[in-house]
Amino acid sequence: MPYLLNFSHPLTPEQRAQVQHLLGAATLEVIEISTQFDHQRTFVEQTRALADSVGFTPEQWQTLPIVVNLPALNVIAACLLAELHGRMGYFPPILRLRPVEGALPPRFEVAEVINLQQVREEARQRRA
Predict the structure, then answer these.
(1) What is the pLDDT of residues 69-124, one digit of tens each?
(2) Is 61 left (phi over 0), alpha (psi -120 to 50) or beta?
(3) pTM over 0.85
């Protein structure tokens, strides 16, 4: 069973079903993590505490099938990816949401699951 760590807005049942379908998973465990940072404090310390708040052991970080919905603020997302890579030993797959065209009120759907580790491996092939 994959674990979806959601560091962003709550996901709707429809979005959860879309993730489950894209992963080909029978079930999906969603863990909602509140991501509110104090701009007067260092983001590195807050990112470490954010990852700690998930409650996984070092073994779980390295062995569980984890997908991440990143925080919207780019600096927090970048720090979080570095922290997670350190704990997991690889870049986790991430979600990309997109607006549903013409939807009122605005809605978002899951567009894809991006395999960041694969992106990294392919980019290494382009090193000169």
Answers:
(1) 999 999 999 999 999 999 999 999 999 999 999 999 999 999 999 999 999 999 99
(2) alpha
(3) yes
DSSP calls for 53-75:
TT---HHHHHHS-EEEE--SSHH
- The token duo for 48 is 């470490």
Residues 6+ apart with CB under 8 A from 7: 33, 35, 50, 68, 69, 70, 71, 76, 80
Q: Write the DSSP symbol of residue 11.
A: P
Backbone angles phi and psi of 68, in degrees to 5 = -125, 135
Instruction: Check: CB of residue 51 under 8 Å from CB of residue 87.
Output: yes
